[in-house]
Design goal:
Length: 244
């Protein structure tokens, strides 16, 4: 009996019109459930980060090789894509932007934004109406160790200087931020990872202090080190397998 990979089995089953109709209907029903959408979003965010890191490692090691058949399929897909007028228009616009300097490009993007949304205030209103972000696992773990006077505001209920902190002590005007090692470029584990300027701890601290807040940062690896220590004190021989 011929052994097929999972992707080949899925492709083969998808060729059946009746199977495809049933599968499409089932996916639509799943997508109507908010819990399913949230779980899928979390899963995709997690595997996307791991996938990028693994792909970069494999490329550096020369372990990723694209077959001639795959190259042919990619080329054919791109050829069909750029036969569509709307795609050609996008390509021409992208090429025109590459021909101008960074400052001029930023001015054009600014004008395009105002033309679409009217004002930055309108964007802020849209952000307030957007679904609220739920606490991450690290934030939930930190919240358990904080007193009742600390409030979680990472869902957007409070903004300071255009930034959204994680926890705030309103009486003492203190802020506690939980920093993921990769996203915030931990100097120990990811010193060369790409990062947006607003994610820099130094930038965030300067903004919060300008508004009269004291700031403390708690790194992901510090939380995991505490977790490992707690397991070790409980008598676990190898805490790393539970505390990562």
């Amino acid at each position: 009996m011929e052994s097929l990979s999972r992707s080949e089995r899925v492709r083969k089953s998808w060729e059946n019109p009746e199977r495809r109709t049933k599968q499409t209907a089932a996916l639509k029903r799943c997508w109507q459930r908010e819990s399913y959408r949230n779980r899928l979003s979390e899963h995709l965010r997690e595997i996307s980060r791991k996938g990028r890191m693994e792909a970069a490692r494999l490329r550096q090691a020369g372990a990723i090789a694209i077959s001639d058949e795959s190259r042919k399929r990619i080329s054919e897909a791109q050829r069909r894509r750029f036969q569509r007028p709307e795609e050609l228009k996008k390509l021409e616009k992208a090429r025109s932007l590459q021909a101008i300097d960074f400052q001029k490009r930023a001015e054009l993007m600014h004008d395009a934004f105002l033309k679409k949304y009217g004002s930055f205030l309108e964007l802020a209103k849209m952000g307030m109406k957007a679904p609220k972000r739920k606490p991450s696992k690290l934030e939930l773990e930190v919240a358990k160790s904080l007193g009742d006077e600390w409030e979680y505001v990472g869902d957007g209920k409070m903004a300071i200087g255009g930034l959204i902190p994680d926890f705030v002590h309103r009486t003492r005007k203190e802020i506690l931020e939980v920093l993921g090692c990769y996203y915030h470029t931990c100097p120990i584990h990811y010193p060369n990872a790409p990062m947006r300027p607003k994610a820099l701890p130094s930038f965030r601290e300067s903004v919060y202090r300008a508004y009269g807040y004291k700031v403390d940062f708690l790194w992901e690896h510090e939380i995991k080190d505490r977790r490992k220590l707690a397991f070790k004190e409980s008598g676990v021989d190898e805490p790393s397998i539970y505390a990562n």
